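Predict structure. Chain length: 372.
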Amino acid sequence: MTTARGDQPQHDAGVDPLVCLREPTDPACDVFLTGTVFLDIIFTGLDSAPVRGTESWARGMGSSPGGVANMATALARLGLRTSLAAAFGDDHYGEYCWDALEQGEGIDLSLSRTVPGWHSPVTVSMAYEGERTMVSHGHEAPPLDGALTAYPPRARAAVASLVPGRSEDWVARAARGGAKVFADVGWDDTGRWDLAGLTDLEHCEAFLPNAAEAMRYTRTECPRAAARALADKVRYAVVTLGADGAYAVDGATGETAEVPAIRVSALDPTGAGDVFVAGFVTGTLADWPLADRLAFAGLTAALSVQEFGGSLSAPTWGEIAAWWQHVQGHAQQDPEALRGRYAFLESLLPAPARPWPLRRAVPTIGFRAAAS
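Prediction complete.
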């Protein structure tokens, strides 16, 4: 048996990127997604990888919802009305994750459930030297009772994580309901790299693998050639190139776009891929030009790696506005180049309320309320 929890007010993201496109008959949900929510515990400020038989002290630590919550949070902070179907443990970790997502981020959890007797999956992430090492523990969640037949809700878009050899019925249902499906994929541990094994790709509007994944699936030696090959399967093939940015092909028109990455000092790459996808989803639903979508996705990902954690690091519009004001007066930046590439942001960004860098809230499971 599972139990649902009540509704909470919508998170105020500050900007609605779809405000000019909304109609009374539109779906209430902009983006739907489902998956596993982890409690992430992140250690930062490590000078090197932990050494066996020794104790390492980290200079920083945070905790936040992780797993699919990274993507859900990134979407919500960019102003998209986000619905998440997930199982939550009935332990304190599960309660914390639920409240952080619903009350803190305004994510619709009406299709999610708290599962009695099931403990929350946990990931411990250690960030050092621009990389991360993770240790996870958890057990597969019980089915979400009848919720599987009820979702997905009518939505503008859905985000799916494809698994080789596995098909998810909800993906086809979402596409038939009019949702644009955006998909990423993980590393193929089987080593087959069989594109035909990604059966749900036929329902997808966009596919966003990294360069290594794209080249292996297409048997090509160049990420741009891989993107062109993938554009035969989906409308938008987007290949992320790491420090070199991203390349995209519109399979319907043949248009291509390539945008370089923004050079930043990376603290923790956790969740950067999720933030990139959220940025591209936002730009696509807002009907921006392909190059602007890539630029925005790359910008949001670049802002995220300068903070630690997955959902913790997803930027808000206020943070993007503060960055935009800061870099235009920065001695090491080219203001003309920035204005040319990110001029489309001018009509969207709110006035920055605080200077860059913004100080973030202390991430913790929660303080006890002070006695009155």
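Summary: Residues 1-12 have pLDDT under 50 and may be disordered.
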